[in-house]
Design goal:
By secondary structure, the chain is mainly α. The chain has helices at 8-26, 47-53, 58-66, 73-83, 88-91, 95-98, 103-108; strands at 29-33, 39-44, 111-112. It has seven helices and three strands. It has a three-stranded mixed beta sheet with strand order 2-1-3, with no helix packed on it. The longest helix has 19 residues, at 8-26.
Amino acid sequence: MFKEKVSPEEKICNKIIGKNIRFFRERCFIMKTRKGGKNHLTSCLTQTQLARKIDVSCQQLQKYEKGSNRISIYKLLKLCEFFKVPIKYFTDPETTNKIPYTRNLYERLQYNSNEDNINN
């Protein structure tokens, strides 16, 4: 199979997008219900959980995050929908510097596992 050459600029873009995917994944907290009906936050979203949400393998998501594989616009739009952010947040090299870890981001990126079973 013929492998398409990737320009240096495209490699940089892939790395920026991958870094920003990881940035949002690591800041997406999972809300779970304990016995007794009380909610609590657990750790960040895993690569496996996010991969299932956008219909790719865990290995493919790892490659996206490392920037070694190009992500399709369709998958990027699925990420935008999941994280509730505009596409520019993934393509901007300064995203991780511009978005402070605030309560607003925390609330936006909470994921309620009871609404959509994330463990399946």
